[in-house]
Design brief:
mainly alpha, Ferritin
């Protein structure tokens, strides 16, 4: 009997990890579809602030951020909450909802900035995204503090992206 519950536990963990990884993979691919065709000549031709990272930084940075997002989500997905109406269960449910909203917002930004060549609407979307990151981070923290910690780099990166986006809009107005 213990072997069966162990096997089902491993399957559950693997399924939850796959769900977290699939979510971030879909967001990443959606963003790349909008970004890659617009790096040259559009993005390359924009005036950018001096603190703009070189293009090669974005791939490794986003890979690390997406892995941390998947790890955070997996930890929240796998949390056993006991009673359906408990505070932990409500926070877990809200955290999962916020996480998928965050992925949607994350995938939408490249379509506004790169595909639509619209830095100002993209900036507005980033401000909403920053609020969503903070709400997700805070909710994840209440379920699993380590999961909340995993989203702190994302909060910093999205804040930095907002500043960069603002400066690009300002310089290219």
């Amino acid at each position: 009997m213990a072997g069966l519950s162990g096997t089902s536990g491993v399957r559950r963990e693997a399924g939850l990890a796959a769900m977290a990884l699939a979510g971030v993979a879909v967001a990443s691919i959606a963003g790349q579809i909008a970004t890659l065709p617009n790096l040259a000549p559009w993005y390359a031709g924009l005036a950018k602030p001096s603190f703009t990272p070189p293009n090669w930084v974005f791939g490794p940075a986003w890979t690390a951020l997406y892995l941390l997002m998947a790890l955070a989500a997996w930890r929240v997905f796998r949390t056993r909450t006991g009673s359906h109406g408990s505070a932990l269960a409500r926070n877990r449910r809200r955290g999962v909802q916020l996480f998928f909203l965050l992925l949607l917002l994350n995938a939408a930004w490249p379509w506004l900035f790169f595909a639509a060549h619209a830095p100002l609407p993209a900036l507005a979307e980033l401000l909403v995204q920053l609020v969503a990151v903070f709400a997700t981070l805070s909710t994840f923290w209440r379920v699993d503090p380590f999961a909340g910690l995993c989203l702190m780099p994302l909060f910093g990166w999205v804040a930095f992206a907002g500043l960069l986006n603002f400066e690009i809009w300002r310089l290219n107005g």
